[in-house]
Write a structure and sequence with these properties.
The complex is a heterodimer.
Chain A (H helix, E strand, L loop, with lengths): L1 H22 L7 E9 L2 E8 L3 E9 L2 E8 L5 E11 L2 E6 L4 E11 L2 E6 L6 E11 L2 E6 L1
Parallel strand pairs in A: 1-3, 2-4, 3-5, 4-6, 5-7, 6-8, 7-9, 8-10
Chain B lengths: L1 H16 L3 E5 L3 H22 L6 H10 L7 H5 L25 H4 L22 E11 L2 E7 L4 E10 L2 E7 L4 E7 L5 E7 L5 E7 L5 E2 L3
Parallel strand pairs in B: 2-4, 3-5, 4-6, 5-7, 6-8
Antiparallel strand pairs in B: 1-7, 8-9
Helix pairs in contact in B: 1-2
């Protein structure tokens, strides 16, 4: 008798979750992936809204990556990818909401600096790609 | 006179590109001289292409003063790095090509029935309002700054095998294009300022192994 009641409760709960899932659309999810190999590397990610996507990959030491994204509307999609291999590389990515932003930063070497700032509206989309190989290179992109 | 070295190409380039400006400065004296000479070459060619109505007395005075500098470098005195295109006045009539190949109607795909499902779009949608900024740096102590404020701006900067170069791209308007490529240069400063309505700026500076600065069109 006890087993029967437990099974009935499980079925009821399952139906309840299923009905709730069908009642409202699935929320927009944020995706964040950070992979670091080495010592003393730092990765900071701040995402707000939904449907953001971010990936940070760092190999070496003393690398720093900072990514902040703000997607206010459901149409806003921010995607940022930061890859750093070496020592002492510094990368910041800032993308605001609305429209479609996309940023890719790849740095190989040591003490390279890349700063990307993008602000878009529903009528403008921004794309930025920065690739640096060597040492003491600096790149800054600002888009409005 | 680093100020004059920078301002004079800026002035001539501003006249040629009718709103889009580019200026170049080099650290060494011989590189400055060759760079200015190459820019004068490019400016004269661009002015001939654009037409006499684009020229002004200011350009003539500047070109007359700086034109002899183009013969300072032995490489430029021996041979010009530019490739001549079709000379002015040469025309060709090819009406016979119209008779070859299928007509436009034959190239069009057959019309689908009205109740058919349209095919799935297989390619990424074109984004006419997208701003694009791309940077490629291979070297050391290079600095690239790109600023875009508008719609549909495209800016590409490439530094390959160079050291201590500084590139600044400023685009303030819509549908602006600029492409800057530096190969093997050292200590080169390039600035491109494009206000709204500027034509595309394509600039390449190549430093050969013997130190010659080449600026192709």
């Amino acid at each position: 008798m006890m087993k029967t009641l437990t099974a009935a409760a499980a079925v009821t709960l399952g139906l309840g979750f299923a009905s709730a899932a069908f009642a409202a659309p699935p929320p927009l999810v944020n995706e964040s992936t950070i992979a670091q190999i080495g010592v003393d590397s730092t990765a900071i990610v701040s995402q707000r809204g939904g449907n953001n996507n971010q990936g940070t990959f760092q190999v070496g030491g003393l690398n720093f990556a900072y990514t902040t994204q703000y997607g206010a509307t459901s149409k806003g999609y921010n995607g940022a990818n930061t890859d750093q291999v070496g020592f002492g590389n510094f990368a910041t990515t800032t993308q605001s909401g609305g429209g479609y932003n996309n940023s890719t930063t790849a740095q190989f070497g040591f003490f390279n600096t890349a700063m990307t700032s993008q602000t878009s509206s529903s009528a403008v989309t921004n794309n930025s790609t920065t690739f640096q190989a060597g040492a003491f290179n600096h790149a800054m992109v600002t888009q409005h | 006179m680093p100020g004059a070295i920078t301002v004079i190409p800026l002035l001539t380039s501003f006249i040629f590109w009718r709103g889009g400006a580019a200026f170049v400065s080099a650290p060494h004296q011989h590189e400055r001289r060759r760079t200015i000479a190459a820019i004068i070459h490019m400016g004269i060619s661009m002015s001939a292409y654009s037409g006499i109505r684009q020229l002004s007395p200011l350009f003539f005075s500047t070109a007359m003063v700086l034109a002899p500098l183009s013969f300072c470098g032995s490489a430029f005195a021996a041979d010009t790095p530019f490739i001549d295109q079709i000379p002015s006045g040469l025309t060709a009539d090819i009406p016979s090509l119209r008779s070859f190949g299928p007509t436009v109607a034959q190239w069009l795909p057959p019309k689908l029935p009205s109740n058919s499902v349209p095919p799935t779009q297989l390619v990424a949608p074109h984004l006419p309002n997208a701003n694009l900024a791309q940077i490629l740096e291979i070297g050391s102590h290079n600095t690239v700054i790109q600023g875009q404020d508008g719609i549909g701006d495209v800016s590409n900067v490439g530094i390959i095998g160079g050291n201590a170069n500084n590139v600044f791209i400023g685009q303030d308007g819509n549908d602006l294009r600029s492409n800057v490529l530096l190969i093997g240069t050292n200590g080169m400063n390039v600035g491109v300022l494009e206000p709204n309505g500027s034509p595309p700026v394509d600039l390449a500076i190549i430093r050969a192994r013997n130190g010659t600065i080449i600026i192709p069109r």
